[in-house]
Design brief:
Elements lengths: L3 E7 L6 H9 L3 H7 L9 H10 L16 E9 H9 L5 E4 L7 E9 H11 L4 H16 L3 H4 L1 E3 L10 E3 L2
Antiparallel strand pairs: 1-2, 2-4, 3-4, 5-6
Helix pairs in contact: 2-3, 5-6
Length: 170
């Protein structure tokens, strides 16, 4: 059995954000982003809007430096002994678990900002096999939403031939 991960929550802007920004600066961040280059992931548009708010002339497709301004929640499930390894690993994310099912499956909700997730996934590559499986599962879920460019590229070949994986900066 493997660990399965699903992105269940993310930062969502208040409906009034664009209007407030337009009142403050005279221009709607969404208009600025639409005129310029856009991020690859729709989930990264929030960061592009933030960047446009700060500087209307900036490259709103390059938002990696703002990753810590997004918050993500992930629902993960797997064998209770594997998930116990994950919850015991010092990943720095908030974690909430439910009760194991009769079949020995345990679910957890894990939340944190983008920088915390990048660090947790990077560090999971150094953990035990269960933690590595969790890190790869979460990374694949971010990839499914085209956010891998913000986190880095997963490389299964650790330098020095040690077990695990590492994230390369992109």
């Amino acid at each position: 059995m493997t660990i399965h991960s699903e992105l269940i929550s993310r930062t969502v802007l208040n409906d009034m954000f664009h209007q407030f920004c337009e009142q403050l600066g005279g221009e709607n961040p969404a208009s600025i982003v639409q005129r310029g280059r856009r991020p690859k992931s729709e989930l990264a548009y929030t960061l592009a809007y933030f960047k446009a708010f700060a500087d209307a002339e900036s490259d709103t497709s390059e938002v990696k430096a703002l990753l810590g301004m997004l918050h993500f929640g992930m629902l993960c499930a797997g064998p209770d002994y594997d998930i116990a390894e994950v919850t015991g690993f010092p990943h720095g994310l908030r974690c909430l678990q439910n009760h194991p099912s009769r079949r020995g499956v345990l679910g957890i909700i894990v939340t944190g900002d983008g920088d915390q997730w990048a660090t947790a996934i990077r560090n999971a590559g150094l953990g035990c096999p269960s933690v590595q499986m969790w890190g790869q599962s979460c990374y694949q879920e971010f990839t499914r939403h085209n956010l891998d460019g913000l986190f880095g590229r997963l490389n299964p070949n650790r330098p020095g031939g040690t077990d695990g994986y590492f994230l390369e900066n992109t």
